[in-house]
């Protein structure tokens, strides 16, 4: 069933209007999950203000007891003591202090940028503070039991909105030189477009100034999945080309405000993933008429146009930071040497990384196997659009967590392509983490992150593949990588939580993999560890933990995990630029 949702007033009018009062008859949607109790809410023309908009589509939102900006307190030197090492010498002395031999062939060249990363909805909290409008993720977490596993929301998150000074002081104390975070579009534009919310900009002014004061360089992502709800309800969000202009208008405000204070800009985070969120669950958003299975490709089409226009705008404004988008996905290894598996692997690249990388890094157009399909949907770029998109990234940013095997579907690629009912159609490739011998490709991460195995052995090959396939003059940045320590959420004492051997191993191996790639001539220019601290892992709530810092969700106290020291050690040993801890 298709539902119509119409707001009577344009966005600008909504903010000030208190025209009509919502009643259960014309607008109540059940709280705490379940589809719309009264779907006619979507068909009513209503005039509401921002608070009523929240109330109607999201419902009650939790607030934190700490709700004003907290000054940074100095990090006590007692917290800056590294843990006992995970790896012991082959001839133990009992000293727990083995000699680690430096490999003289390895180095992170001068200028290598490294740090830790976050995203607005995952850490900020303060969901309604200072005029923030709702995003689709507020609806997902509050309303849709089919999406979240644990009814967790980002209402309070890590309360970073008020605690950012402390968070920046804590990474500066360890000498971390870059902090990658995202700006919440629906803070800056509560309706995604229309009036700008000056309070939000003032917040990000201070976040960026605080970074600079502490010698931490800001890396900013414009869009990390938190689409303003209004844009989804008005025209289907990324499903409509209308979003291109609205995204660019948002980029213009942020670029104009922060300009050369930002070292690296990312327009979009992981479009493969957020486009794959479509189709959204029914009855929480206004309906769209595009066939469900094809919605993601419409999203991708508009993402490419929006990214490209934002990139061109940034260049025309003379921004001196790099501009790119964050692509994502694991290395794809053929399960066998059959020609059908080789074909499946190429199809997997084309339907994933290549979807966004070929247009931006090669020629403005989709890769072959994807193009064969999306051209049947009318998704073709004009010559002008190809020219617009081609070459719109200053480096190749990849969120490269893991690797997997890929193979043809049961019955083969050709049979799948001939049968649109095949569950793997239209990609027609299959994947597994289990190798032909029956072993996992590497140790599994947490049970809530079944997509993640520790497969760092493949990272040098992966980085070389990226360099060879989608060359970028600015090199490759591993814009996210990280590890969900198995069962970490079940640990009950802080000391147990903080000593995280799986994550220590992941970072040690991963950093060595980058060093090997660099030593073999791959131009890796930076890396950003996910995440600065434990946070809302989207639909998986607070169960999987990716932080290099623990956050006590009762007290909001932050604590360094052992793996944070492992990560920093790599730079202490191998960076040509010195690691400078700032003790404040
Ligand atoms: C809502 O308002 C618009 C513009 O006034 C009008 O075109 C539309 O028919 C109305 N829809 C409903 C369901 O009343
Ligand atoms: C902040 O918290 C205090 C105490 O819990 C509360 O009285 C106040 O209304 C809150 N303010 C905001 C803006 O949430
Ligand atoms: C989530 O909320 C729904 C609706 O209130 C409830 O039925 C369910 O038990 C909750 N789940 C958890 C894990 O708390
Ligand atoms: C960009 O410009 C700012 C302000 O002039 C300057 O501080 C910064 O070093 C520049 N960054 C680069 C990468 O040139
Ligand atoms: C594929 O062929 C290569 C080179 O001949 C060989 O090293 C490798 O073991 C083969 N892989 C499989 C899964 O058979
Ligand atoms: C895309 O841009 C690159 C340079 O960035 C150029 O070499 C190539 O010819 C362009 N391709 C097309 C199809 O315009
Ligand atoms: C995909 O591979 C799995 C084994 O990993 C298999 O069980 C499943 O049937 C395959 N699916 C299709 C549609 O080929
Ligand atoms: C197409 O795939 C569906 C789902 O796997 C299957 O039930 C059906 O038999 C297949 N049709 C043909 C003609 O193979
Ligand atoms: C988190 O803080 C609460 C309140 O102080 C405390 O009871 C709890 O033990 C802490 N959790 C851990 C794992 O330290
Ligand atoms: C040192 O690095 C080189 C180049 O990456 C590598 O070939 C060699 O195996 C490394 N040595 C050790 C002991 O890891």
The span between the termini is 59 Å
Give me the CATH superfamily.
Glycosidases
The CATH class label is Alpha Beta
Number of helical segments with 4 or more residues: 21
What is the overall pLDDT average? 90
* Secondary structural class: alpha/beta
- The coarse overall form would be globular
How many domains is the backbone divided into? 1
- Unique bound compounds: 2-acetamido-2-deoxy-beta-D-glucopyranose
Number of DSSP E strands: 15
Low-confidence stretches are 1-38
**CATH architecture, please?**
Alpha-Beta Barrel
Share of residues in strands: 5-15%
Helix content: 25-40%
Protein name: Glycoside hydrolase family 1 protein
GO molecular function, one term: beta-glucosidase activity
Family: Belongs to the glycosyl hydrolase 1 family.
Organism: Coleophoma cylindrospora
Set out the fold topology.
Layout lengths: L5 E2 L3 H6 L7 H4 L17 E2 L3 H8 L55 E5 L2 H4 L12 H8 L16 H14 L4 E5 L2 H4 L9 H16 L3 E7 L5 H7 L6 H17 L5 E6 L1 H6 L18 H22 L5 E7 L2 E4 L4 H13 L1 H11 L4 H7 L8 H7 L6 E4 L3 E5 L5 H5 L12 E3 L26 H11 L6 E6 L12 H5 L2 H19 L4 E7 L18 E3 L6 E3 L1 H13 L10
Parallel strand pairs: 1-2, 3-4, 3-13, 4-5, 5-6, 6-7, 7-9, 8-10, 9-12, 12-13
Antiparallel strand pairs: 10-11, 14-15
The structure holds 2-acetamido-2-deoxy-beta-D-glucopyranose (10 copies).
The site of one 2-acetamido-2-deoxy-beta-D-glucopyranose has 5 residues, from loops.
Primary descriptors:
Glycoside hydrolase family 1 protein; TIM Barrel; glycosidase; binds 2-acetamido-2-deoxy-beta-D-glucopyranose; eight-stranded parallel β-barrel; three-stranded mixed β-sheet; 584 residues; disordered N terminus; 21 helices; GH_1_N_CS; alpha/beta
């Amino acid at each position: 069933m298709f539902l119509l949702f119409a707001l009577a007033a344009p966005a600008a009018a909504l903010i000030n209007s208190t025209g009509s009062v919502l009643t259960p008859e014309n607008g109540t949607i059940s709280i705490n999950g379940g589809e719309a109790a009264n779907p006619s809410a979507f068909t009513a023309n209503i005039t509401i203000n921002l608070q009523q908009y929240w109330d109607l589509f999201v419902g009650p939102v939790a607030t934190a007891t700490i709700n004003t900006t907290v000054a940074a307190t100095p990090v006590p030197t007692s917290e800056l003591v590294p843990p006992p090492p995970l790896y012991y010498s082959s001839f133990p002395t009992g000293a727990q202090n083995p000699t680690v031999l430096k490999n003289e062939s390895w180095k992170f060249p001068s200028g290598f940028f490294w740090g830790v990363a976050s995203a607005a909805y995952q850490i900020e909290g303060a969901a309604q503070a200072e005029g923030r409008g709702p995003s689709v993720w507020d609806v997902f977490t509050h309303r849709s039991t089919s999406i979240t596993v644990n009814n967790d929301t980002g209402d309070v998150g890590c309360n970073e909105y008020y605690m950012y000074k402390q968070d920046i002081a804590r990474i500066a104390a360890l000498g971390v030189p870059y902090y990658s975070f995202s700006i919440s579009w629906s803070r800056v534009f509560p309706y995604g477009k229309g009036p700008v919310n000056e309070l939000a900009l003032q917040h990000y002014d201070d976040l960026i100034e605080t970074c600079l004061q502490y010698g931490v360089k800001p890396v900013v992502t414009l869009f990390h999945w938190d689409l303003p709800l209004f844009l989804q309800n008005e025209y289907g969000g990324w499903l409509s080309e209308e979003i291109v202009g609205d995204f660019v208008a948002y980029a213009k405000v942020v670029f104009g405000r922060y300009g050369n204070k930002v070292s690296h800009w990312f327009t979009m985070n992981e479009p493969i993933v957020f486009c794959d969120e479509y189709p959204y669950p029914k009855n929480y958003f206004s309906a769209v008429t595009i066939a469900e299975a094809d919605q993601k490709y419409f999203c991708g089409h508009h993402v490419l146009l929006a990214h490209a226009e934002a990139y061109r705008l940034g260049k025309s404004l003379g921004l001196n930071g790099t501009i790119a988008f964050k692509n994502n996905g694991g290395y794809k290894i053929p399960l066998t040497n059959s020609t059908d598996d080789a074909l499946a692997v190429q199809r997997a690249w084309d339907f994933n990384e290549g979807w966004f990388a070929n247009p931006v890094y090669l020629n403005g157009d989709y890769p072959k196997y994807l193009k064969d399909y999306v051209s049947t949907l009318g998704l073709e770029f004009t010559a002008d659009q190809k020219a617009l998109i081609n070459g719109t990234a200053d480096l190749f940013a990849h969120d490269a967590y893991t690797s997997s095997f890929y193979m043809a579907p049961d019955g083969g690629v050709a049979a799948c392509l001939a049968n649109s009912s095949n569950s793997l159609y239209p990609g027609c490739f299959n994947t597994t983490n289990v190798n032909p011998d029956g072993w996992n490709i590497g140790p599994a991460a947490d049970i809530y992150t079944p997509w993640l195995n520790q497969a760092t052995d493949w990272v040098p090959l992966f980085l070389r593949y990226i360099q060879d396939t989608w060359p970028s003059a600015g090199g490759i940045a591993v814009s996210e990588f990280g590890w969900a320590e198995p069962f970490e959420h079940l640990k009950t004492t802080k000391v147990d939580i903080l000593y995280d051997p799986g994550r220590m191993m992941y970072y040690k191996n991963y950093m060595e993999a980058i060093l090997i790639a660099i030593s073999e001539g791959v131009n890796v220019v930076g890396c950003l560890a996910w995440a600065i601290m434990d946070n809302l892992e989207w639909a998986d709530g607070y169960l999987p933990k990716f932080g290099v810092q623990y956050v006590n969700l009762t007290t909001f106290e932050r604590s360094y995990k052992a793996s944070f020291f492992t990560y920093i050690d790599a730079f202490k040993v191998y960076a040509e630029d010195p690691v400078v801890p700032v003790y404040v």
